[in-house]
Amino acid sequence: MEYRLEELLPAAAGLTEKYTSKESSSVTYETAQMLMEAVIYCIGLCEESYGGALRSKRGLRAEEAYSIGYEKVIEKTYEAKAVYDRLAMDFEDYGCVNYRDTMVSGMPQFFLRYDARFCPQDHILTLDYPTMNRYGKKSGIRLIYEYLCDAEREQRLLRCFDSRIITALLRHVEAKQDVDYMENICSLVLLQSLGCLISKKQLTDLTLTRTDTEEIRRYFSDDPAETIGDKVQEMIGLIIQRAGMEPWKQYFQREGNEFAVRIYNAMKYDALDALFYV
């Protein structure tokens, strides 16, 4: 849905009245910009939810599109809170401070401080713990909802492994790097389990030796990056299938391309032991 500025102004004016409780018709430039962005954000969520057909069929004015979008913001906020409540119920941080700070300390603050009416485009948190997804320019509740859904499916995969083994792996990585682990835990666990699969060890073991990395080297010997990628994608699919998470296979397989590049370069520079944290 594309609206001209003059079509957006009535919606912004109505929101400004709510912001000032009709006590003033003027606000600062920064506030006016924030409120206009709120209107545009809600209209965008309306379009995302219903598509351009909604406007063409009903001739939606910007004010109507804004109102529909605002209701979607409220709806998505409740949905995000439901996802978070499920996630928090038996959340495991594996001793990763960054993960715990984002989920346990940060996320409740989002739900306390989120301003769905006047600043829905602000997601407040920096989301320092990365999921395996990339969010581009998404913001506000759109971002938070998708982030939490991704975190939930990643937690579900991690629960297929012994938490003590994952925790031990993180401590091993931190000792190797001499710094707190700040990356995605699920990606690390998935890569290690690939190594276990190739070296014919139990998938949930997550512990590899130099003998295992030699087996990995032989498995990918002389393969170009593209072939490595195909093999890795197939193995990730197998792991996700065994975890009973086939509906989300594509989500995890997206990591395969990055894994392939890392494996290819590690073989090229004789660094497989470092990649698989022997």
Walk me through what this model shows:
This protein is mainly alpha-helical and 278 residues long. It has 13 helices and no strands. Helix 1 (5-20) crosses helix 4, helix 4 packs across helix 5 and helix 4 (62-89) runs parallel beside helix 6 (140-158).
Provide key terms for this protein:
single chain; mainly alpha; 13 helices; 67% helix; elongated
Compute the number of strand runs: 0
Residues in β-strands, percent = under 5%
Instruction: Specify the number of helices.
Output: 13
- Radius of gyration (Å): 23 Å
* Helix percent band: 55-70%
Structural class: mainly alpha
Give the uncertain stretches in residue-range form: none
Give the overall form: elongated
Largest sheet: none
Q: Would you list the SSEs in sequence order as H and E?
A: HHHHHHHHHHHHH
Mean pLDDT: 93
- Distance between the ends: 53 Å
Could you outline the blueprint of secondary structure elements for this entry?
Layout: H1 5-20, H2 29-50, H3 53-58, H4 62-89, H5 97-113, H6 140-158, H7 163-177, H8 185-198, H9 210-219, H10 225-242, H11 249-253, H12 256-268, H13 272-275
Briefly say what this structure is.
The chain has 278 residues and is mostly helical. The chain is built from 13 helices and no strands.
